[in-house]
Amino acid sequence: MQRRILAVSLKRWGFLVAEAGTGEEAVEICREGLPDIVISDWMMPGMSGPDFCRAFRAMQKDTYGYFILLTSKADKVDVAEGLDSGADDFLTKPVNTGELRARLTAGERILDMQGELREKNRMIEETLIELQQLYDSIDSDLLEAKRLQQSLVRERQVEFGPARVSQILRSAGRVGGDLVGYYPIGEDKVAIFSLDVSGHGISSALMTARLAGFLSAAVPNQNIGLVSRGGKLHAVVPPDDIAARLNAIALQEMESAHYFTLALAELNLRDGRLRLVQAGHPHPVIQRADGQVDLIGQGGFPVGLLEEARFELIEDRLAPGDRLLLISDGVTECTDAQGDMLGEDGLIRMLHELRGVEGSSLLESIVWTLAQRRSERNFDDDVSGIVLEFTDQSS
Predict the structure, then answer these.
(1) At 374, which helix (H) or strand (E)?
(2) In whole angstroms, how far apart are CA 125 and each of 61, 68, 118, 164?
């Protein structure tokens, strides 16, 4: 009789009602179609109200069902049992229709909020799918950009008569701001350079790509280090003037917040005379034939930072068996597993240990040693380097 009275009230309030005389009957009804709200007596033939609630909660469903237990039990232990079974609310028998309507209204608010949450979750899921698709597209583009950036470092090793140039570039991310390269100057000179654009990511990589054009060996008529005379590009611009020209270009034409460090050296292949510039880049390193390591340069200003910056021309000489190494700060500032940087002293020790290793093998060994110190293959910053080895001209 109480069930019939409740059903009449619920229908009057606009609910679609299904009745069950036992918990087992209610389970079967729920399997056919899960209801939004369940009102169940605690004491029933066979399955109890809490047992029915547990069975109801165990059913697979996308929406939430609000469960109200009708009981004459008021003991705290009984209330705890009901809540533990999954019930949301309680009503004491005999049921007061006003109180029932209030509890149903509260249940409807919760169901409405659950519906809104479900809709928002659906929108978030769709947005995440779109973001993942966008990320995959960007990542694919960045992989292609990385391949293009790696193509700027063409041959890993190339011979120029009595000189051999080797280079390496390992980007920390998909793309990076480091660049190494070389270009011949007529038949008796060669230039090598190493630069590092501030920051990381796409904007740094784009600036690196543009700078590569100004120091290109593939398109020498665009190289600002070469001057045309007699229809031939052979006359060289001194390294300090090249840095000054790049400084003006970066400030006046690129209009970028980025600046970059640079080390650029020019070697005379006939007599080993060396001219170079250091613009905020790690010190160029000369390792003599006897293994001695010299750090040269005074640091200097980065390029593209100050209009009034001046760049110093440094002169030295390579004897047969000597080599010049230009590296990025990703080498000297590379940390080990304890967070300690390699530093210049660590680089010098490394070069002493690798004095018998030459060419590309030297650079690969440096990168491998750095990875071993870190106990991992990934680096926090781009790692790049270029080495110019000078041999006896007669060899």
Answers:
(1) helix 359-374
(2) 18, 32, 10, 56
Q: What confidence score (pLDDT) does residue 394 get?
A: 47
Phi (first) and psi of residue 166, to 5 degrees? -130, 150
Query: Using an 8 Å Cβ cutoff, are 328 and 384 in contact?
Result: yes
Q: What span, in angstroms and rounded, lies between the C-alpha atoms of 54 and 164?
A: 78
Which whole number is the average pLDDT over 294-323? 93
Name the amino acid, one letter, at 241.
Answer: D
Q: How far apart are CA 147 and CA 285, in angstroms?
A: 29
Please say if the pLDDT value at position 351 is more than 80: yes
Q: What is the pLDDT of residue 147?
A: 64
Task: Tell me the HSE value of 44 on the side-chain side, using a 13 A CA sphere.
Answer: 23
In this structure, what token pair is assigned to residue 76? 């705290």
Residue spans of beta strands (DSSP E) within the chain: 37-41, 66-71, 89-92, 157-160, 163-170, 178-185, 189-197, 226-229, 232-236, 260-268, 273-279, 285-287, 293-295, 313-317, 323-327, 383-390
8 Å CB contact between 44 and 15 = no
Q: Model-level pTM? A: 0.66
Q: Which pLDDT value is given to residue 178?
A: 86
Domains (range + CATH), the chain? 2-120 (3.40.50.2300), 153-390 (3.60.40.10)
Residue 395 confidence (pLDDT):
43
